[in-house]
């Protein structure tokens, strides 16, 4: 239990009179399985709140709100117990202020649920106090707590005193004001310095039991202005490291703190370097960090690998040094895009997570230009499965391309709750990070950094909207960036350029003719090479589905590549290369590799793997599978599997050839292709063979906008079945048939509905036979709570 008292001064800086104030009571999200958080987690497959023990739940109570010392009415939201409304006795006029106070008590939930919680005697105290909602030009922003889709809170000045057992180490928002606690932490730093060198590079220490809590209590005080939240973390086992970084512009010094247990101390021993570098580079690119300290704490959290709060971030288990650095850098970076700018991440998550990811990508490329971080995630098997040599940036690119190639792409500008958990990572993080890296490549570092710095300085400690960042970029660049903000951010239009041909000019230079294969008009960079060295880059742009030219001045060009550095978020890169030495100049060499891997744009890779099979007629079969299935998908995919039949002393097998389409409207994904197979039809060596050819069309219905709780598809499949007797050279049977199928699925928390309508047809002896079938399945889920002493037979 956390017992507390709060008093805050609320100033009406709006032009409107306010008759009430919405108050967030987010610990109540942990109270039962009816909260918005519990429902979101259930929808995403996490049923932790469905049968949670009472001891693991959380809540906030003991509230007694007063305004200027007088008791006022407080109403709970009927749908969300984690939202309340403070009714003012008289309207608060523009420029006026009031003092609001209340005691409160928080039952701290299990840390296995979301962000607020405890893991044993380690505490993560976040979103823990009654917090006024934001009132901006769009009105009130009252919102329930969610695990996916973070927060939007009001800026203020905090003065927080915390009383707890004396041997706890605390990392928190703000500047520590208690001299005795500063001495306590500095002593911890000296102790850690002595001990830290004893940890080898690979020494993982299992979690130690918590030491006994001190019977003596201490009260420590933190203050911080111009932040919109206050979080703190406490653990008796923490080791502590302390550092300092000089900011690039103001040259002001910022203190950095790392607090961690011995469990991954062999990784955390370099955490100060990560904190210093993150603070320096984010300041250089966006604007100097305005606060005095940055802290990272080690904690087991259930809401992702890390979570940010002003001045302080909590980091989950890392597993490797580069993973720890990446997470620390990302979470420290949130001080700019979540903390200082204070954008509405619940409604516009890309303004925080996505732009922050673009900075993270840039950080890794700057510090580790030859990194293979994505490949490192696969350990020693990366090269064996042909996923070697892939950087941190490549990982984001592949993530987006997989989503886009499978028709799962969504607009960047959506409410955070409109994404599946997978797409929250693929779109909000990866895709946004890619498109802003692409914008930086187009504008150049100097102009891009100027825009970001002006945006930061203009909107820090405020609440910018998407129109505000767009206005800054268009004003400072003097460019119409509709292709970026309207198309790449607000739609699922996808870039797809192709090299049509290369023309030789009279001067000996070359003109490259590109075909724009999409309805998106976006700038494209074409890179020219001579003898393996890049000699020139040209930016160009053209109309929808039109050709466009890139004119080079260099001579002796022997290779041309669209976006050679992979900055452009393009779904299909297999048609991006022209090379003088290639067959027809554009046909990449065929490359045979084992099993599976990534889709390299400068190779036509055919994957192969041995295959065995058996059936009653062919007996044992041995052969191989040849395919071009890879990550990301090819537009044309094939799989051919010839198998030698020992029972028939012949070649059997199967094949699938199809085209993949991702339309912009009506359908999310379309596959058009044909399947073929041939096997023995009769036993005992009789040479009767079965052939089947099945053309098919699969269409997944729907647009790629917000998340739906239903899905539907149409499938049309033909079938040409033949039986052939080799001994008498006779076609025994010939059937023409197929199916037309419509399938619908709807899933809610309470019930699942599945409906299917199918028509089968078959021609035999020149007659047409058909059959239709309709099926409907409804599944309801009921939850009964029964006292332990009762029994259901």
Which helices and strands, and how do they pair?
Elements: E1 2-11, E2 18-24, H1 36-43, E3 59-61, E4 66-67, E5 70-71, E6 73-76, E7 83-92, E8 97-107, E9 117-119, E10 122-125, E11 131-132, E12 135-136, E13 139-140, E14 156-165, E15 169-172, E16 175-176, H2 179-196, E17 217-227, E18 232-235, E19 239-246, E20 253-260, H3 265-268, H4 271-286, E21 293-298, E22 306-309, E23 312-315, H5 321-340, H6 353-367, H7 373-376, H8 392-405, H9 421-443, H10 445-459, H11 466-477, H12 482-489, E24 497-504, E25 510-516, E26 524-530, E27 533-540, E28 547-551, E29 559-562, E30 577-579, E31 590-594, E32 604-615, E33 619-627, E34 636-645, E35 650-661, E36 667-680, E37 688-701, E38 710-725, E39 730-747, E40 751-764, E41 767-780
Parallel strand pairs: 20-21, 21-23, 31-32
Antiparallel strand pairs: 1-8, 2-7, 2-11, 3-8, 4-5, 4-8, 6-7, 9-10, 10-18, 12-13, 14-17, 15-18, 16-17, 19-20, 22-23, 24-25, 25-28, 26-27, 26-29, 29-30, 32-33, 33-34, 34-35, 35-36, 36-37, 37-38, 38-39, 39-40, 40-41
A few lines on this structure:
This protein has 793 residues and is an alpha+beta fold. Helix content is 20%, strand content 38%.
- Alpha carbon gyration radius: 31 Å
Poorly predicted sequence stretches spanning 5 or more consecutive residues: none
Alpha-beta content class: alpha+beta
- Per DSSP, the total helix count is 12
Estimate the helix proportion, in percent.
10-25%
Overall average residue pLDDT: 91
- Which shape, going by the Cα principal axes? globular
Largest sheet: 11 strands, mixed
Beta-strand proportion: 35-45%
- Give the spatial strand order of the biggest sheet: 31-32-33-34-35-36-37-38-39-40-41
Distance between the termini: 39 Å
DSSP summary, beta strand count: 41
């Amino acid at each position: 239990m956390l017992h507390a008292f709060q008093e805050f001064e609320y100033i009406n800086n709006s032009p409107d009179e306010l008759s009430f104030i919405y108050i967030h009571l987010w610990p109540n999200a942990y109270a039962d399985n009816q909260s918005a958080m519990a429902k979101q987690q259930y929808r995403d497959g996490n049923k932790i709140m469905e049968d949670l023990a009472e001891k693991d739940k959380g809540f906030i109570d003991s509230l007694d709100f007063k305004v200027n010392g007088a008791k006022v009415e407080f109403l709970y939201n009927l749908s969300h117990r984690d939202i309340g409304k403070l009714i003012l006795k008289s309207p608060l006029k523009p420029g006026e202020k009031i003092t609001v106070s209340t005691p409160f008590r928080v039952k701290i939930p299990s840390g296995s649920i979301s962000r607020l919680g405890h893991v044993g005697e380690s505490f993560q105290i976040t979103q823990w106090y009654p917090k006024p909602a934001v009132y901006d030009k769009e009105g009130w922003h009252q919102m329930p707590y969610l695990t996916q889709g973070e927060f939007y809170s009001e800026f203020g000045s905090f003065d927080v005193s915390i009383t707890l057992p004396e041997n706890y180490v605390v990392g928190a928002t703000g500047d520590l004001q208690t001299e005795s606690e500063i001495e306590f932490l500095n002593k911890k730093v000296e102790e850690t310095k002595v001990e830290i060198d004893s940890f080898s590079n690979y020494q993982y220490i299992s979690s130690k039991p918590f030491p006994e809590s001190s019977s003596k209590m201490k009260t420590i005080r933190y203050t911080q202005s111009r932040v919109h939240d206050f979080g703190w973390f406490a653990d008796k086992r923490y080791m502590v490291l302390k550092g300092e970084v000089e900011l690039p512009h103001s040259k002001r010094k910022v203190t950095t703190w790392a607090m961690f247990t011995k469990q991954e101390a062999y990784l955390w021993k370099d955490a100060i370097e990560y904190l210093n570098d993150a603070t320096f580079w984010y300041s250089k690119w966006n604007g100097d960090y305005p606060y005095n300290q940055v802290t990272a704490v080690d904690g087991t959290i259930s809401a992702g690998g890390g979570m940010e709060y002003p001045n302080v971030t909590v980091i989950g288990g890392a597993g490797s040094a580069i993973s720890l650095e990446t997470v620390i850098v990302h979470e420290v970076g949130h001080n700019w895009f979540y903390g200082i700018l204070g954008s509405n991440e619940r409604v516009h998550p890309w303004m925080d997570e996505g732009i922050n990811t673009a900075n993270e990508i840039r950080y890794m490329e700057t510090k580790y230009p030859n990194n293979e971080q994505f490949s490192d995630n696969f350990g020693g098997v990366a090269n064996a499965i042909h996923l070697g040599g892939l950087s941190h940036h490549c990982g984001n690119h592949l993530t987006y391309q997989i989503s886009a190639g499978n028709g799962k792409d969504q607009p960047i500008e959506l409410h955070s709750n409109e994404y599946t958990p997978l797409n929250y990572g693929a779109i909000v993080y990866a895709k946004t990070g890619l498109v802003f890296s692409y914008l930086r490549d187009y504008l150049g570092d100097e102009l891009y950094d100027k825009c970001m710095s002006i945006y930061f300085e203009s909107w820090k400690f405020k609440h910018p909207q998407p129109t505000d960042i767009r206005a800054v970029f268009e004003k400072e660049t003097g460019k119409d960036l509709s292709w970026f903000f309207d198309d790449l951010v607000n739609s699922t239009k996808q870039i797809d350029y192709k090299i049509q041909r290369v023309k030789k000019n009279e001067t000996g230079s070359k003109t490259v003719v590109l075909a724009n294969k999409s309805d998106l008009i976006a700038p494209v960079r074409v890179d020219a090479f001579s003898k393996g060295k890049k000699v020139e880059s040209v930016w160009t742009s053209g109309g929808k589905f039109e050709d466009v030219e890139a004119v080079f001045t260099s001579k002796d060009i022997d290779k041309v590549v669209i976006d050679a550095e992979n900055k452009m978020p393009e779904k299909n890169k297999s048609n991006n290369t022209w090379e003088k030495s290639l067959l027809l100049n554009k046909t990449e060499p065929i490359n045979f590799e084992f099993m599976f891997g990534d889709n390299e744009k400068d190779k036509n890779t055919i994957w192969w793997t041995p295959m065995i099979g058996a059936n009653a007629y062919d007996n044992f079969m041995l052969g191989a599978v040849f395919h071009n299935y890879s990550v990301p998908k090819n537009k044309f995919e094939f799989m051919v599997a010839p198998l030698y039949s020992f029972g028939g002393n012949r070649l059997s097998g199967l094949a699938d050839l199809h085209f993949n389409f991702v339309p912009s409207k009506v359908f999310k994904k379309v596959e058009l292709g044909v399947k073929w197979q041939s096997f023995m039809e009769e036993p005992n060596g009789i040479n009767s063979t079965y052939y089947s050819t099945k053309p098919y069309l699969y269409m997944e219905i729907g647009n790629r906008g917000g998340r739906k709780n239903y899905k539907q598809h149409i499938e049309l499949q033909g079938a040409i079945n033949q039986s052939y007797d080799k001994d008498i050279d006779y076609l025994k049977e010939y059937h023409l048939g197929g199916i037309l199928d419509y399938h619908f699925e709807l899933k809610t928390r309470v019930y699942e509905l599945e409906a299917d309508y199918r028509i089968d047809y078959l021609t035999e002896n020149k007659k047409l036979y058909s059959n239709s079938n309709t099926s409907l399945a409804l599944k309801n889920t009921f939850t009964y709570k029964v006292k332990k002493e009762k029994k259901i037979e």
